[in-house]
Design a protein that fits this description.
Blueprint (H helix, E strand, L loop, with lengths): L9 H13 L4 E6 L5 H14 L4 E5 L25 H12 L6 E6 L6 H12 L3 E8 L6 H6 L6 E5 L5 H12 L5 H11 L3 H14 L2 E4 L2 E4 L8 H12 L6 H10 L2 E2 H7 L2 H9 L3 E6 L2 E6 L2 H9 L3 H18 L6 H13 L4 H13 L3 H9 L8 H13 L3 H13 L4 H18 L4 H13 L3 H18 L2 H6 L13 H17 L3 H18 L12 H10 L3 H15 L5 H18 L2 H17 L6 H14 L3 H6 L1 H6 L12 H9 L3 H18 L2 H13 L3 H14 L3 H15 L2 H14 L2 H18 L2 H15 L8 H4 L10 H11 L4 H8 L3 H15 L7 H4 L12
Parallel strand pairs: 1-4, 1-5, 2-3, 3-4
Antiparallel strand pairs: 6-7, 8-10, 9-10
Helix pairs in contact: 1-2, 3-4, 7-8, 9-13, 10-13, 10-14, 14-15, 15-16, 16-17, 17-18, 18-19, 18-20, 19-20, 20-21, 20-22, 21-22, 22-24, 24-25, 24-26, 25-26, 26-27, 26-28, 27-28, 28-29, 28-30, 29-30, 30-33, 33-34, 34-35, 35-36, 35-37, 36-37, 37-38, 38-39, 39-40, 42-44, 43-44
Length: about 900
């Protein structure tokens, strides 16, 4: 890991190669903030110059070297040259270097620190064309007139301004460095901490690897949910950056490290305006305007940790108390003031007024800051807790994944509930927590039923009937659950809002389970809109979770790409939110969308993320589904050892009842990978029967389709066609048509099915349909049609991340690839060029071009050049040659 790949800088490398080859640029100046990779890019430039047989040299400018004329570059000057007389010395250096065939390429790091004599000499050598210069300089640093003059050399100078990496570039870099898939939350954590700065990222990754905070979890790199550790190098880098500020700034920096944010007025009370201006100009603090309020924060989240680590404990306490008193003097006018004062007082003294703590916890809950809520409410003495504070603590514990402790707190709250309002909020929260604590729903249902009988208000009692229906729907019996949700209103109630939101989410999911996809989509969109309007607050579930039924309905509508986008968008919203229940659930839906598309590597990453969240927070309900998905993905790419190693883990987790039958996919596809197709089909038949028995019709469709794909379409076609009449999801209809075409061995219908499935976003089924069509046409003796179908199947299979299935195995090696010359001619012809135009362009005879075209048509299974763009998967564009 000493030299990381240059991700996102490739265009600069390409440009340098071209500039060097064309000899059109003599000076490359790379500017950027510390840590963005200026030196790293300059070194790559120097390596490219050396590879091009250029003589190279390197110098590093520094403040110490600048004290001596030519101190930075003296070691690269020709020996024997007397530089005591600058004029003669410069001429002598130029004369010696001019004897070389091409200019020497010189790299000068930290060019802004170069002394004037060295800068003048380099400028003259550049003008004499005896050297080419690669220089790095820090953005914003003051430079000498001589350095400034280097930038004025018109077209012969290329300036490159480097910034931090974008999120997608950081993601690519991590996957290349760690040589494996990286979890979405890990990307988010490292991008947030580093800000995309390559040097900070490198140190964060090295520190996390060394401490074990970054480790492989079910084959995916996952970072723990604790604070990322600092390496000594990272501490030194940040400390050096901060220590450059004046000593008068220290009190302000320490206050910002502990308080996070200060108003400009409070900041001015600690340090004068000149100090604040200097800190902002140097990039250590950031001054932001929020309407009429101006605030000051540290410019980078890592700065606070370093400053805090180097501040004595007693001084930290003094800072916290002083700032709490200052804010209290203003009267806690803003909503967040209570949270800030309570947190500071806890940090300083370990206690605070219980009314203040509860007020602060409510605000923290509105921001989904569950860890802060737990810290605040845990500081309240046992005899000072109220039902409200206990419920709030229980909710935060549940959101944070501490389900056992949450049950203890909520049981205490329920026992002390005095009226219908308190009974409603305690029982509702406790019921939800119990549901996620275990795959067994009985305890949650017991609390739900007990609450119904204990409430005197029939409206509130009815909310618990809806909650019971939601639990039954998601917990394994959707038909029964949905019958209890028939009269669930679509307008938010005044009381029992949590129960209503949960029931609405469950109803939308249940409608998809039983095949009412259009109704489910409409309800899911409504639920998401209502929940987003209401806001987050302490509501259960997190609003992002409303994307789950919407994504599932889109999958079954045959809009798999859109479903994935919805799931990924919701996952991104949750990366910074401590909401593990929602995170693991939406990761599962992202994985399922990728699985349906036939992208096992992408699906594996998401199944692993769901499993990692579930393990960390002991969320056992969905674990069997996540591990089964991991098994299936490993098996689909032929990694039978990994798939087999997961069997004990899968069997150790109880079925959840959610999407019944689909938990068998892992074992079934392991049988397929081992060539045990009969055993796979038998297992899938049992799973399909389970799905049918519980009313999970879309799961039954998926499982029956797999049986058809694995060699027994005749055995499942009748039931699939029946399900197609009962379910309104377009994907169910397409699957039924695919299995029917497989059973009939009808190549034309199979090709129609392939086109339909590709449009729906499932290239794996589309590829299998085309592969089956190729086999059918071969049996009919139509070799040209068989070749076209094989070519299509191979193209679609190429989008499936190495997936291996029995149908795809039939096309392995069956496609004769185009030679380089054939590919060139095919592309030119596809662009609309005539044989004569191609012959003139390639200096071939027209007859030779036509012969090549006939071989191309045969290999691609087409009959004319008009079919070339489609066969090559190209869009027709402008013509390259005259026609």
């Amino acid at each position: 890991m000493d030299r990381w790949p240059l991700v996102g800088r490739e265009p600069h490398l390409d440009s340098f190669r071209q500039d060097l080859a064309a000899d059109r640029v003599h000076c490359w100046l790379i500017f950027g903030a510390p840590g963005v990779g200026k030196t790293r890019l300059a070194e790559e430039f120097l390596d490219l110059a050396a590879a091009g047989e250029r003589r190279t040299a390197r110098a590093v400018a520094s403040r110490a070297a600048a004290q001596m004329p030519l101190g930075a570059i003296a070691h690269i000057l020709p020996s024997g040259v007397d530089i005591a007389d600058p004029v003669r010395g410069f001429r002598a250096v130029a004369q010696v270097l001019s004897g070389r065939p091409r200019p020497t390429v010189v790299l000068v790091d930290d060019l802004h620190l170069l002394d004037n004599s060295s800068a003048v000499l380099l400028g003259q050598l550049l003008d004499s064309r005896v050297v080419s210069l690669i220089g790095t300089a820090r953005t914003g640093e003051q430079t000498s007139d001589a350095i400034h003059a280097l930038l004025q050399r018109s077209d012969h100078v290329r300036r490159i301004d480097l910034g931090d990496m974008a999120r997608h570039q950081l993601e690519e870099l991590l996957q290349r460095v760690l040589e494996g898939p990286v979890g979405r939350r890990t990307h988010h954590a490292l991008f947030t901490a580093s800000g995309g700065n390559p040097l900070l990222l490198r140190e964060l990754v090295l520190g996390a690897l060394e401490s074990g905070a970054l480790a492989l979890n079910d084959g995916v790199w996952d970072v723990s949910e604790t604070r990322l550790p600092f390496t000594p190098t990272l501490m030194d880098l940040i400390a050096a950056r901060i220590s450059a500020s004046p000593s008068a700034a220290r009190p302000l920096l320490e206050s910002l490290a502990f308080c996070g944010e200060l108003s400009r007025t409070d900041a001015a009370a600690i340090a004068d305006r000149t100090v604040l201006d200097d800190l902002e100009r140097s990039g250590i603090v950031r001054v932001s305007a929020h309407r009429r309020r101006v605030t000051v924060t540290l410019a980078h989240s890592l700065y606070g940790g370093v400053i805090a680590a180097r501040t004595p404990a007693l001084r930290r306490y003094d800072i916290a108390l002083r700032q709490a008193e200052r804010l209290e003097a203003h009267g806690l006018k803003r909503r967040e003031d209570a949270l800030r004062v309570a947190s500071w007082r806890l940090d300083a003294t370990g206690t605070a007024d219980c009314v203040l703590l509860l007020r602060a916890a409510k605000f923290a809950m509105n921001s989904n800051d569950n860890e802060r809520v737990i810290a605040l409410l845990s500081a309240i003495q046992a005899d000072q807790h109220t039902t409200e504070s206990l419920v709030l603590l229980g909710r935060a514990l549940m959101h944070a994944g501490q389900l056992e402790r949450a049950e203890s707190v909520l049981a205490e709250a329920e026992a002390g509930a005095r009226d219908d309002h308190e009974k409603t909020i305690t029982a509702g929260t406790r019921c939800t927590n119990l549901f996620w604590s275990t795959p067994d729903s009985d305890r949650a249902l017991t609390v739900c039923v007990t609450a119904q009988s204990a409430l005197s208000d029939p409206v509130l009692a009815n909310q618990f009937r809806f909650l019971e229906g939601g639990i039954l729907t998601v917990g394994g019996t959707p038909a029964r659950g949905l019958s209890m949700l028939d009269d669930l209103g679509e307008a938010p109630p005044q009381e029992g809002l949590d129960a209503w939101l949960i029931a609405l989410n469950a109803k939308a999911l249940g409608l998809v389970f039983v095949g009412s996809v259009e109704e489910a989509r409409s309800l899911a969109e409504h639920a998401r809109s209502v929940h987003e309007t209401i806001g987050e607050g302490g509501l259960l579930p997190h609003p992002a979770l409303q994307a789950a039924p919407l994504a599932l309905s889109l999958m079954e509508k045959g809009m798999i790409d859109q479903a994935r986008d919805v799931s990924l968008g919701a996952c991104d919203v949750l990366q910074a939110a401590p909401a593990p229940v929602a995170r693991q659930f939406l990761a599962f839906y992202s994985a399922r969308a990728e699985w349906l598309a036939g992208r096992p590597l992408s699906a594996r990453r998401w199944y692993a993320e769901a499993a990692a969240v579930a393990r960390t927070h002991r969320l056992s309900r969905g674990m069997r589904s996540y591990l089964s998905g991991l098994m299936a993905c490993a098996a689909l790419v032929g990694d039978t050892d990994t798939a087999a190693s997961l069997v004990p883990d899968v069997e150790a987790n109880a079925p959840s009842g959610f999407l019944a039958g689909e938990e068998a996919l892992g074992t079934a596809w392991l049988h397929v990978a081992r060539g045990e197709l009969g055993q796979a089909r038998d297992l899938l038949r049992t799973a399909a029967a389970d799905a049918r028995g519980t009313g999970h019709l879309i799961s039954e469709v998926l499982l029956l389709t797999d049986i058809g794909r694995l060699g027994d379409p005749q055995g499942v076609r009748e039931r699939l066609n029946e399900l197609s009449r009962r379910c309104d999801g377009a994907l169910t209809h397409a699957r039924a048509r695919l299995v029917t075409a497989l059973a009939d061995d009808d190549p034309a219908s199979l090709m129609d099915s392939s086109a339909e499935l590709e449009h729906m976003g499932t290239p794996i089924l589309a590829a299998e349909a085309a592969a089956a069509a190729a086999g059918a046409w071969k049996r009919r003796g139509d070799s040209r049609a068989a070749t076209a179908a094989t070519t299509r199947a191979a193209r679609l299979a190429g989008r499936c991340e190495g997936a291996r299935t029995p149908l795809l195995a039939t096309i392995a090696g069956a496609c004769a690839p185009l030679t380089g010359r054939e590919q060139e001619i095919a592309l030119l012809a596809a662009a609309g060029n005539t044989s004569k135009g191609i012959s003139e362009h390639l200096t071939l005879s027209v007859r030779t071009v036509d012969n090549h075209l006939q071989r191309i048509y045969l290999k691609l299974g087409i009959r004319s050049r008009a079919e070339l763009p489609r066969a090559l998967n190209l869009d027709t564009g402008s013509k390259d040659l005259p026609r």
